[in-house]
Design brief:
By secondary structure, this protein is an alpha/beta fold. The protein has a single domain, classed as 3-Layer(aba) Sandwich (Rossmann fold), CATH 3.40.50. Helices cover 45% and strands 16% of the residues. The strands form 5 sheets. The chain has a 7-stranded parallel β-sheet, with helices on both faces. Strands 6-15 form a two-stranded parallel ribbon. Strand 1, helix 1 and strand 2 form a beta-alpha-beta unit. The model has no long low-confidence stretch (mean pLDDT 92).
């Protein structure tokens, strides 16, 4: 049976390119649409986001683009905010499935630049929904654990009331409502996924796991915002990718929301201890916790387990050292 055609809008980012690399191995026909403007080549080259190591970030992005090219994945560099250009590209490709990833994927940047966050998140979503109405069989939207806001309990499920506290989480939740409402009107099956605290190879998103490793490599202190007791449901990118494959291949995913995480929160200090095991002489620097960053914890993944057979296999003790070793090899090549 012929494999389906899958379009990933915003697919050249950390999450999207890893999904594409996995799906191409299963003979899906893949098209990535991306402007490379948000947390990617264009912003890194100009360093408009003021990342501390733009040269290293560009080196990682070059690795990412090499992987896309060597796996013969089609990449169309256009701006998804342009309705007519995006619509034409989608109509030409005729996807069976569209995965919507385009967004400003950092809560703190969203707070500092709400207009750009809206433009790259909801504008692109609106365009993708309109371009695909009555034309595709499945629309997959990437939301975030940030839609829950402050965790009232140690664990939240998909039935927990969403109460986002910042611009990033609020826009993600708005996107969820738009996707569901659009599906009601145009009868397009959808799936909404809520990942959490992702980490893994070829990430330049300045997530905490990446920052710790880069600081350790450069003999800088590990900067911790808060007291390191806060817990996050750290999720290795490989587990998320396997979850997305199940979403694509299992009809039970349609018109559902899923937490796709490891399903067991760990403290920031647990991550710090792993870094200490892999680097000597580390110093720790504690900073004030940034505003509009909710206290979080574990996401209940029992729904994804029951309906999809989702079984993440990479606890922090297994996957984070693997990520550290990948970074060390990269660092040696970079230098």
């Amino acid at each position: 049976m012929k494999k389906k055609r899958i379009c990933l809008v915003g697919g050249a980012g950390f999450i999207g390119h890893n999904i594409a690399l996995e799906l191409i191995q299963d003979n899906y026909e893949i098209l990535i649409i991306d402007s490379l403007a948000v947390n990617n080549h264009n912003s890194i080259v100009s360093n408009s986001d003021n990342v501390p190591n733009p040269g290293l970030s560009k080196f990682i992005l070059d690795d990412r683009m090499t992987a896309i090219r060597e796996n013969n994945i089609n990449l169309l560099i256009i701006d998804a905010r342009d309705y007519h250009v995006l619509t034409r590209a989608i109509n030409d490709f005729k996807p069976d499935i569209l995965i919507q990833l385009a967004a400003v994927s950092h809560a703190n940047r969203s707070t500092k630049d709400p207009f750009s966050t809206f433009d790259h998140s909801l504008r692109t979503l609106e365009n993708a929904l309109d371009a695909t109405k009555n034309r595709i069989e499945h629309f997959i939207y990437f939301s975030s654990s940030m839609v829950y806001g402050e965790f009232k309990e140690n664990i939240v499920s998909e039935e927990t009331t969403c109460d986002p506290v910042g611009i990033y989480g609020s826009l993600k939740y708005a996107g969820e409502l738009i996707v569901k409402s659009h599906a009601n009107v145009f009868n397009t099956p959808y799936t909404i996924v809520r990942p959490s605290a992702l980490y893994g190879e070829r990430c330049v998103s300045r997530r905490v796991g990446q920052i710790f490793i880069e600081n350790a490599l450069m003999d800088l202190p590990l900067t911790i915002k808060g007291d390191a007791s806060e817990k996050l449901d750290f999720t290795y990118i490989e587990d998320l990718v396997q979850g997305i494959k199940l979403v694509i291949e299992n009809e039970k995913s349609r018109n559902q929301i899923f937490n796709l995480t490891y399903g067991d929160s760990r403290s920031i200090n647990d991550m710090v201890e792993i870094v200490k095991e892999n680097f000597s002489g580390l110093k720790i620097e504690y900073l004030e916790k940034e505003p509009f960053t909710p206290t979080r914890g574990t996401l209940d993944i029992s729904k994804a387990k029951k309906l999809l057979g989702f079984e993440p296999k990479n606890p922090l003790e297994v996957a984070y050292p693997k990520y550290i070793n990948w970074y060390k090899d990269l660092w040696n090549r970079y230098n």
